[in-house]
Amino acid sequence: MNAVVNFFTSAAMRWLLLALAIVFPFVAAGEYQIYVMAMAFIWAIAVYGMNIITGYCGQLNLAHGGFFAIGAYAVAILTVDYAWPFWPAFLVAGLFGAVFGFLVGLVSLRLKEHYFAIFTLCVGFIIYILIEKSEALTHGTLGIINIAPPEGFGLVDFTRTIPFYYLVLAFLVLAVWLTRRISESLLGRTFRAIRISDDLAQSLGINLMRNKVLAFVLSTVYAAFAGGLYAGVVRFIGPAEADILHTFDMIAYLLVGGIGTLMGPILGTLIITWLTQMLQSFEEYRMIIFGPMLVLLVIFFPKGIVGSFLAWRGRRAARNAPAVRRESRVAGDSAATRPATREEARDNA
């Protein structure tokens, strides 16, 4: 049992999941399933960004979907209106995410808890309105079509489903790797100290504002890059990409998988994405179906699937610790009372 538990929380599990993702196109029923999985990976990248600011740092950013839209529109405007190639536009999308994230974070993070959440909710609505009304820049309600796809190389054509799937998978792997490095670093421990208590963090000499803004910028860069990839695959975007519902969808993905965990964002995103696909015939009743599911999840698994599993593992380890100590003490007592062997007597002499 211990071996099974350790496997599900080890690097071997992550390598197994990567292997399954690599072989998925060869076992999928058709290109549509591959496309759905690629889209789930794109949303998972954005959810990893939300996990940094909300899961690790404890700040609920309700404008996250707006920064996703900023990245998508940066790629769309630069490739369609200014004839830029995709990759330079993609890098600029990440830069825009960082700049706007810094400006918004500098103002909003002076607020705490629900005041911060309400402020960022307003920011999300402002982004949506600006995109919808700025016809000269964003084409307004008409949206932008014929967005340039990622340029391939050699025989690799990213306009085809399978090559694009592996491109998105590579970016997702990079996002998970960076998140893991952040989580295990001093910076990640700093974020978690802020999540626990601002006063505790300050007593440890942590600069609250600087670290909160850094977490906010990192999260918006993730979202902007995800939005840029999204624009490159769908090749048409409109103001709906900045809808606040996208932010709530990402919160749901994070809650289902496990907030503040490494594998929670990808697990929650995949579960809800494929459940949505299986319940397409009930699209009109989507919220009626998912609403009670989320309520039950919050009641019985408040830390999400991965978080609840890790909490169970911690409780199990705590229960087993006294038994292990008793066994060690008994073994030590036995060694002390048994007669010394000839080799031990010689060593003692």
Computed structural class: mainly alpha
Question: Helicity, in percent?
Answer: over 70%
CATH class of the largest domain: Mainly Alpha
**How many beta-strand segments?**
2
Beta-strand fraction estimate = under 5%
Mean pLDDT rating? 86
Overall outline: globular
* Major pleated sheet: 2 strands, antiparallel
Number of domains: 2
Subcellular location: Cell inner membrane
Keywords: Cell membrane, Membrane, Transmembrane, Transmembrane helix
Region (Disordered): 327-349
Membrane topology: Multi-pass membrane protein
Characterise the protein shown here.
The chain is mainly alpha-helical and 349 residues long. The protein folds into two domains: 30-302, ABC transporter involved in vitamin B12 uptake, BtuC (Orthogonal Bundle), CATH 1.10.3470; 304-349. The chain is built from 16 helices and two strands. The protein has helices spanning 2-8, 11-27, 31-56, 64-80, 86-108, 113-133, 135-138, 161-184, 186-196, 198-203, 208-234, 244-257, 264-278, 286-300, 304-337, 342-348; strands at 144-145, 236-237. Helix 3 (31-56) runs parallel beside helix 8, helix 4 runs parallel beside helix 6 and helix 12 packs across helix 13. It is globular and about 70 Å long. Residues 327-349 are annotated as: Disordered. It is a multi-pass membrane protein. It is found in: Cell inner membrane.
